[in-house]
């Protein structure tokens, strides 16, 4: 099945996606994390509910206000340098062990809202990524069992402030500016995609021009291996998210560099999942608005 979390009557509500349309479920329906915890029985119950929805229940996904998948968010674990060509274009050695860092909940924003270009830098870069949604808890998960712990997948734009990323050997500053990591809009359950979401086209477009174009088959650490490796040092829990790294073509590796600027529109598209679209806006003085 395909889901999105939206805002209706000022509340977060779960919606079922069919093609370009969404049916927003009632306030008595589960949120996404509850649905994940219900397991297959929950999915079956939602499927039965959808079967009897009238045509009027469906509306256009593109015009529906969207929210982040989870509020508050669980752990957001990110892999870096997971595509060989991307590691090489950035001047990094291809790692024997994946580069792993964390994002904070305040760095995320939903599809349709503006990625914020910070006042302190002009080096805002795009990164198209596959995002894994963890569905079952586990520690020391074997690679053979890892995909049983995956609920589904969505799109992610790991927008990075490159000069801050390079200030230290730790990437935390450049990866955690407020409202730079866009997620969504559609969460696709794992059964609808190839095992590990492998072999899917992944692309990024900036103002309509394709700037990244690759396949998830090019990941050096595939999803099952990533889940297993991460679970060696932390317990993975339902609702945790794992960003699987970006392919080649990022802006900082170009001559001259290509940065995202206010007024731009950036899209991440993953075959079988959908399109994550966000504008870019300049940071305004004052307090950051609360995430939805």
UniProtKB/TrEMBL annotation:
Residues 75-280 form the Fumarylacetoacetase-like C-terminal domain. GO terms for molecular function: hydrolase activity; isomerase activity; metal ion binding. Keywords: Hydrolase, Metal-binding. It comes from the Bacteria. Pfam families: FAA_hydrolase (PF01557). Gene3D superfamilies: Fumarylacetoacetase-like, C-terminal domain. GO terms for biological process: carboxylic acid metabolic process. Belongs to the FAH family. This is Putative Fumarylacetoacetate hydrolase family protein. It comes from Mesorhizobium metallidurans STM 2683. The lineage of its organism: Bacteria, Pseudomonadati, Pseudomonadota, Alphaproteobacteria, Hyphomicrobiales.
């Amino acid at each position: 099945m395909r889901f999105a979390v939206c805002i209706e009557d000022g509340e977060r509500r779960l919606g079922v996606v069919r093609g370009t349309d969404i049916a927003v479920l009632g306030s008595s329906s589960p949120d996404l994390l509850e649905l994940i915890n219900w397991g297959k029985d929950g999915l079956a119950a939602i499927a039965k509910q959808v079967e009897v929805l009238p045509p009027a229940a469906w509306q256009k996904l593109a015009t529906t206000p969207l929210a982040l998948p989870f509020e508050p968010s669980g752990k957001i674990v990110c892999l870096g340098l997971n595509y060989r060509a991307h590691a090489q274009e950035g001047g990094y050695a291809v790692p024997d062990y994946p580069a792993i860092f964390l994002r904070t909940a305040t760095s995320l924003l939903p599809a349709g809202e503006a990625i914020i270009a910070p006042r302190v830098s002009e080096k805002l870069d795009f990164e198209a990524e596959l995002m894994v949604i963890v569905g079952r808890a586990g520690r020391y998960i074997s690679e053979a069992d890892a995909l049983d712990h995956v609920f589904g997948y969505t799109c992610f734009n790991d927008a990075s402030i490159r000069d801050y990323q390079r200030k230290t050997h730790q990437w935390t500053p450049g990866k955690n500016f407020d409202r730079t990591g866009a997620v969504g809009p559609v969460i696709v359950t794992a059964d609808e995609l190839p095992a590990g979401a492998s072999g899917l086209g992944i692309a990024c477009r900036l103002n309509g021009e394709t700037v990244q174009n690759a396949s998830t088959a090019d990941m050096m650490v595939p999803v099952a291996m990533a889940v297993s490796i991460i679970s060696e040092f932390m317990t993975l829990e339902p609702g945790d998210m794992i960003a699987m790294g970006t392919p080649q073509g990022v802006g900082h590796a170009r001559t001259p560099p290509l940065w995202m600027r206010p007024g731009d529109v950036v899209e991440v598209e993953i075959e079988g999942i959908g399109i994550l679209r966000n504008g870019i806006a300049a940071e305004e003085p004052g307090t950051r608005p609360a995430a939805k």
